[in-house]
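Possible regression after last week's pipeline update?

I re-ran a chain I had predicted before the update to compare outputs. Posting the input and the new output here so someone can diff against the archived version. Not blocking, just want to make sure nothing changed silently.
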Amino acid sequence: MQIPSFTCLAVPDGALFDRVTAIAQAAERSGFDSLWVMDRVYQIATVGPPTDPMPEAYTLLGALAARTERARLGTMVTGVTYRNPTLLATIITTLDVISGGRAILGIGAAWNEDGRRGYGFDFPPSRERLDRPCSTRSSRASPAATTGSSRPSTSRDR
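New output (post-update):
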């Protein structure tokens, strides 16, 4: 189940998380096997105005991981321009650990320039965005290269 908008919930900001949690738990009880939120800083124009609330995706998914039991958790979709790839690998690995292995990573080159420009994020040409996840070199590996303990491997582990 995807939650693309938070204004349709008709609750004040202070009650937003409780309402999202109730929806996620009801979806899980009803048999939905995954929960999805958008990874945006502004709402996209096809859903609502940019002033609509848009919680940070991985903070929200981490909180939902603690309040749900079975549903897989992911974003629709994480653009490579928001986070350094090594940091993103750490975020996803952490979500996977917190959720007991329920994290899903959907990653894309990003298309909505408005949010990136509005918050000062880099928005390079599409070829560079497509290459970005593969071009970062670090002492930390991707979540796929784990030690078997659900944590990214480091140079000490190799």
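Follow-up from reviewer: compared with the archived run. The longest helix spans residues 16-29. Marking as no regression found.
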